[in-house]
Amino acid sequence: MHLEDKVALVTGAAQGIGNACAQALLEKGCKVGLVDQNTVVGNESKNNLDKQFGTQRTIFIPCDVSNEEQLKDAFKKIFEHFGRLDIVVNNAGVNNEKNWEVTVHINLISVIRGTYIGLDYMKTENGGNGGAIVNISSLAGLMPVPSQPVYCASKHGVIGFTRSIAMVSKTGKYGVRINTICPGFVNTPILQTIEKEENMGQYLIYKEELKDMMKCHGLLPPSLIAEGLIKILEDDTLNGEVMKITTKQGIHFHEYSPLPFQANKQ
Ligand SMILES: NC(=O)C1=CN([C@@H]2O[C@H](COP(=O)(O)OP(=O)(O)OC[C@H]3O[C@@H](n4cnc5c(N)ncnc54)[C@H](O)[C@@H]3O)[C@@H](O)[C@H]2O)C=CC1
Ligand SMILES: CC/C=C\C[C@H](O)/C=C/C=C\C=C\C=C\C(=O)[C@@H](O)C/C=C\CCC(=O)O
């Protein structure tokens, strides 16, 4: 996909990985709908981006992605404001093992919903232009993490859903490529949650082990995840892929064995 003048919607865009993705998309000439529940940081983020890219290139929509009406409304506002939608990045996520249902709701259910709403706007049979959806998972979606069982489950779910819906999109000729990114630890505010009982609950006792894991594997800069996103968007051959990003191997793809029976081959 040629990114100049395309319109992207990024959830969790106020800070961290989502913000880096918005910045990278703007650098490529996109217009970006910034979606986040944090109105204060979201507005600050838009103001900072305005200084670099001008006021017309972004719109900030306050929205809790786990609220169906708010999420639908955010898509509608961004589509109406910019007149089209080409890219959706379902990035908003939390680490909360105490209120674990919230983690499933934000990290998995909202990603599924964001994908379906995105398809409604972008798929060619609905009169859309086609496009691309990228769902942000984690290396925790590919391996067990004992101190984060529900986070881990939500991220495994994102990968299974994304690989499956990508096959549906291809066989249904939706014109929309759907991929997932699995970063290792990234230097963003979410890492601070490992210190908090309100996030970790019974697993707070493992915080030193998590810190050791981070020290061992190292922290990635958010800009590298944005680089991975741009690579996926610009390469029209990629669909149903699981991109991994690590300090040791950088941007690379997970390799799966061929399935013995695949109803809808990608
Ligand atoms: N930082 C890391 O080490 C890694 C993060 N990830 C994933 O990347 C994504 C982004 O995480 P970070 O930027 O690191 O976290 P972050 O905490 O820095 O940023 C997350 C953003 O999402 C927003 N958000 C959270 N819940 C929301 C909701 N219900 N509705 C709307 N916005 C909401 C927050 O306000 C915040 O702006 C998440 O899905 C996370 O699980 C994946 C692998 C590693
Ligand atoms: C704690 C804050 C919440 C979430 C952060 C994040 O999503 C959780 C990550 C959990 C586990 C991360 C593991 C990271 C491992 C590594 O970086 C490397 O050792 C890579 C290991 C295996 C991947 C092999 C490969 O690159 O193909």
TrEMBL record:
Belongs to the short-chain dehydrogenases/reductases (SDR) family. It comes from the Eukaryota. It catalyses: resolvin D1 + NAD(+) = 8-oxoresolvin D1 + NADH + H(+); prostaglandin E2 + NAD(+) = 15-oxoprostaglandin E2 + NADH + H(+); lipoxin A4 + NAD(+) = 15-oxo-(5S,6R)-dihydroxy-(7E,9E,11Z,13E)-eicosatetraenoate + NADH + H(+); resolvin D1 + NAD(+) = 17-oxoresolvin D1 + NADH + H(+). Its EC number is 1.1.1.141, 1.1.1.232. Pfam families: adh_short (PF00106). Keywords: Fatty acid metabolism, Lipid metabolism, Oxidoreductase, Prostaglandin metabolism. It comes from Gekko japonicus (Schlegel's Japanese gecko). This is 15-hydroxyprostaglandin dehydrogenase [NAD(+)]. The gene is HPGD. PANTHER family: 15-HYDROXYPROSTAGLANDIN DEHYDROGENASE [NAD(+)]. InterPro entries: NAD(P)-bd_dom_sf, Sc_DH/Rdtase_CS, SDR_fam. Catalyzes the NAD-dependent dehydrogenation (oxidation) of a broad array of hydroxylated polyunsaturated fatty acids (mainly eicosanoids and docosanoids, including prostaglandins, lipoxins and resolvins), yielding their corresponding keto (oxo) metabolites. Decreases the levels of the pro-proliferative prostaglandins such as prostaglandin E2 (whose activity is increased in cancer because of an increase in the expression of cyclooxygenase 2) and generates oxo-fatty acid products that can profoundly influence cell function by abrogating pro-inflammatory cytokine expression. It is an enzyme of class 1 (oxidoreductase).
